[in-house]
């Protein structure tokens, strides 16, 4: 596990309002470049990690404001580590910074719980502002990825498929699972699409059946159609 210098410990104690982050990247040179740029901007880099698992362990120990996470790393990759941190380290957000800046990777990172997704060719001068925005509860994504999200939102079909009632006994994640069930996806398909374990998907399906008071996936799909039809009627 990477250690934090005494100088950084003192700074953290003396100036608790400053942004505290962990850098996770398997490339030491990349970590140094980012670290130097952030420290020059007044950001406290409390630790560095060379793998996703180490990033998770450091985040759980130090509880930083943000973890700056690469995607491709040994042991546990950055996406899985992001899911682990956002699930098990409350108050710590993740900004994924990667050379693989394609939209699909970005969408997957956001599904895993990341609050931001930026390519490594981003201007380093802008990185402290992005990290601060995430600490303040905002998202940090490119305009192009933002448009992809808008397009996906607009693609909701007029027949109500994919629509979720505002008032529902199901959680957002449970609706995601139900959406995939309605499209004919298997448990394994859903697990892959949502980056979940098959056991977690089965647990969500059981919760969906219980909350909708149905006994089968087919009945849940029928109930979903009825709920969506009602939602469309209200919105019309």
SSE diagram, text form:
Layout: H1 6-14, E1 20-24, H2 28-40, E2 44-49, H3 52-62, E3 66-69, H4 78-88, E4 93-98, H5 103-111, E5 116-119, H6 127-135, E6 140-141, H7 143-154, H8 172-182, H9 187-194, H10 198-212, H11 217-235
Parallel strand pairs: 1-2, 1-3, 3-4, 4-5, 5-6
Helix pairs in contact: 3-4, 8-9, 8-10, 8-11, 9-10, 10-11
Explain what this protein looks like in three dimensions:
The chain is an alpha/beta fold and about 240 residues long. It folds into 2 domains: about 5-150, Rossmann fold (3-Layer(aba) Sandwich); about 160-235, Arc Repressor Mutant, subunit A (Orthogonal Bundle). Helix content is about 55%, strand content about 10%. It is built from 11 helices and 6 strands. The protein has helices at about 5-15, 30-40, 50-60, 80-90, 105-110, 125-135, 145-155, 170-180, 185-195, 200-210, 215-235; strands spanning about 20-25, 45-50, 65-70, 95-100, 115-120, 140. The chain has a 6-stranded parallel β-sheet, sandwiched between helices. Strand 1 (about 20-25), helix 2 and strand 2 form a beta-alpha-beta unit. Helix 8 (about 170-180) crosses helix 9 (about 185-195), helix 8 crosses helix 10 and helix 10 (about 200-210) crosses helix 11. It is elongated.
Quick recap:
With 236 residues, the chain is α/β, with parallel strands linked by helices.
Keywords:
single chain; alpha/beta; Arc Repressor Mutant, subunit A; 2 domains; 6-stranded parallel sheet; 11 helices; 6 strands; about 55% helix; elongated; disordered C terminus
| Helix and strand run | HEHEHEHEHEHEHHHHH
Low-confidence stretches: 1-16, 232-236
Largest sheet entry: 6 strands, parallel
How many distinct domains?
Answer: 2
Strand content: 5-15%
Q: Per the principal axes of the C-alpha atoms, what is the gross shape?
A: elongated
């Amino acid at each position: 596990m990477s250690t934090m210098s005494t100088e950084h410990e003192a700074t953290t104690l003396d100036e608790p309002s400053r942004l505290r982050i962990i850098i996770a990247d398997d490339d030491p040179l990349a970590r140094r470049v980012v670290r130097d740029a952030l420290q020059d901007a007044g950001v406290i880099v409390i630790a560095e990690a060379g793998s996703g698992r180490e990033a998770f362990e450091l985040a759980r120990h130090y509880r930083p404001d943000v973890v700056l996470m690469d995607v491709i790393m040994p042991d546990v990759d950055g996406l899985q580590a992001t899911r682990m941190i956002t699930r098990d380290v409350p108050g710590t957000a993740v900004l994924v910074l990667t050379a693989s800046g394609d939209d699909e990777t970005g969408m997957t990172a956001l599904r895993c719980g990341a609050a931001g997704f930026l390519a490594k060719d981003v201007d380093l001068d802008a990185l402290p502002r992005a990290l601060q925005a995430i600490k303040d509860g905002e998202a940090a994504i490119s305009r192009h990825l933002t448009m992809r999200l808008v397009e996906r939102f607009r693609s909701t079909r007029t027949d109500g498929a994919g629509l979720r009632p505002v008032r529902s006994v199901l959680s957002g994640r449970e609706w995601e699972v139900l959406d995939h069930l309605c499209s004919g996806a298997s448990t394994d398909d859903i697990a892959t699409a949502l980056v979940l374990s098959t056991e977690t998907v089965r647990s969500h399906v059981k919760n969906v059946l219980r909350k909708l008071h149905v006994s089968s996936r087919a009945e849940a799909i029928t109930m979903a159609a009825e709920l969506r039809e009602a939602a469309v009627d209200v919105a019309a």
